[in-house]
Amino acid sequence: MHWATDYIGLPWSVHGSGPDLFNCWEFVRMVQSRHFGRALPDIANPEDMLVMGRTFRDHPERRRWIKVDVPVEGDCVLLRRSRHPIHVGIWLEVNGGGVLHCSQESGVVFQRSDALALNGWAVEGFYRFQGEGS
After folding, report:
1. Across the chain, which distance is largest between two alpha carbons, in Å?
2. From 114's CA, which of 70, 78, 95, 128 has a CA 20 to 30 Å away?
3. What share of the chain is helix, strand, coil (3-state, %, to 5)?
4. Measured between alpha carbons, how far is 28 from 22 in angstroms, rounded to an integer?
5. What's the half-sphere exposure (Cβ side, CA atoms, 13 Å) at 129?
6. Starting at the edge strand that comes first in sequence, how are the strands of the sheet with 98-103 ordered?
7. What CATH number was assigned to the domain covering residues 3-129?
8. Residue 16: which of 3, 30, 34 has the closest Cα?
9. pLDDT one-digit tens code per residue, 71-117
């Protein structure tokens, strides 16, 4: 059984506060820390989705991650609705690959690309951590 199974069904929270309440960024931070040993910064996560998307796009942390065409386990996945990247998850090599993410509609879920599309998400890009020196 994959380690991610333990997270499926945990609830979403706008503020991501509490040990089992997450917004998408706080969930990614926790998974990256626990399972991949990467400490990601706290990002103020306003309720305004456009502001949140700009924060993801413009935050200095993005310099330590490079965009890749083919994801591997642990890469971050930036997702969008319409034109705006407003959501983030983790790529997992499970059942042909998919995204583990925490959405307002469902809490923590694992979805392959077809299920993401049915829920209105499109992949904006896959990002791989390059470490401190990048």
Report:
1. 38
2. 128
3. 30, 30, 40
4. 9
5. 17
6. 65-68, 122-129, 76-81, 84-92, 98-103, 107-111
7. 3.90.1720.10
8. 30
9. 999 999 999 988 877 889 999 999 999 999 998 888 999 999 999 99
Q: Where are the domains of the chain?
A: 3-129
Answer whether 72's CB lies under 8 Å from 56's CB: no
User: Integer distance in angstroms from the first to the last C-alpha of the chain?
Assistant: 34
- 3-state SS, residue 49: helix
User: Do 72 and 36 contact (CB within 8 A), yes or no?
Assistant: no
Q: How far apart are CA 70 and CA 124, in angstroms?
A: 13
Its pTM stands at 0.84
